[in-house]
């Protein structure tokens, strides 16, 4: 029973961070969470440590845990490296995915599609996040998966405006994102690495344009170390 409650707290905190129910830099009250979930302090601290290891939480000595912040430095790094990580993950996913994972991806896409049709912004955030998590699992790469996981946290938090379209152009972009997901599935099934990577950059550009509506950090320019396709997608960044 305690294990189930502990798992619930872990999943609830992840969801609340991704959906911005918990703001970046918000303090996590160990005592109130212990009381609310009927857990002692030790399992709550265990969950904080696990979430810290996954990039959701920052634990400060003598100051407790807080939701991982978003500042100029982290956002700059996010915009610079995201397309490179996504492209590498996509290529490896084609090489290593298992049939059961492709089934999982298709089911997640159907939930994402349904949420997009119903206007369920929070469901779209979570299903989109899960869609890209599965790509990481498909890659089967112990070095890239943690990097992807950290990127997806901020991608979900920055991208909220994308899933709350306020005009026809934003609605069109959202529909295009759904179609991109379908394209990813088709390219994976065909074992077409180049098609997956091309879609990664199309999908990233679509997301990046909308992310600027949330925040537009200054000085986000392509680095000379970034490959040509990534640089092309980033050269317009403010």
- Report mean pLDDT, rounded to a whole number: 87
Instruction: Specify Rg, calculated over alpha carbons.
Output: 18 Å
Series of H and E elements: HEHHEEHHHHHHH
Total number of helices: 10
Q: Percent of residues in helical segments? A: 55-70%
Largest β sheet strand count, sense and barrel closure: 3 strands, antiparallel
Strand order of the largest sheet: 1-3-2
Distance between the termini: 51 Å
Uncertain spans: 217-238
**Overall morphology:** globular
Proportion of residues in extended strands: under 5%
Class from secondary-structure proportions:
mainly alpha
Task: Tally the beta strands.
Answer: 3
Question: Can you describe this structure?
Answer:
The protein has 238 residues and is mainly alpha-helical. The chain is built from ten helices and three strands; from the N terminus they run αβααββααααααα. 70% of the residues lie in helices and 4% in strands. The protein has a three-stranded antiparallel β-sheet with strand order 1-3-2. Strand 2 (57-60) and strand 3 form a beta hairpin. Helix 1 crosses helix 3 (41-54) and helix 4 packs across helix 6.
